[in-house]
Amino acid sequence: MSRIDLLLLLVAIVCALGVVTAQHHARKLTVAIQQEKDRSQQMEVEWGQLRLEHSTWSMPARVENIVVNQLQMQLPNQKQIQYVHVSPALLQEAQP
User: Virtual CA dihedral for 84, 85, 88, 91, nearest 10 degrees?
Assistant: First the structure.
């Protein structure tokens, strides 16, 4: 075998190793992408569940039931309501 043949064989082996390495890296990236897609889908499902749970917990009828039964709160009668009048000048001073 001549030196040129040996050099070409060495170049071919190096190229083959480069192709194998690139394919391995591409497969690893494909697996990582699929894992992230799965994770994203799981998060979407969890987000939907959390929105549903939030809407359930914050239903006005449920809140009113807790306020009346557990906290024993009630609406004030007309005699208990006091109105506070604020002058427009005070409102302007309070704004940043």
Answer: 0
What is the rounded CA–CA span in Å between residue 32 and residue 29?
A: 5
Taking CA 26 as the corner, what is the angle to CA 33 and CA 17, rounded to the nearest 5 degrees? Answer: 160
pLDDT tens digit sequence for 45-96: 999 999 999 998 889 988 889 999 999 998 888 889 998 888 888 777 777 6
Q: Are 67 and 73 in contact (CB under 8 A)?
A: yes
Which residues lie below 8 Å from residue 9, measured CB to CB, with a gap of 6+?
1
SS3 74: coil
Q: Find the farthest-apart pair of alpha carbons in the chain and give their distance in angstroms, rounded.
A: 111
Is residue 32 within 8 A of residue 26, CB to CB? The reply is no
Rounded CA-CA distance 8/41 in Å is: 49
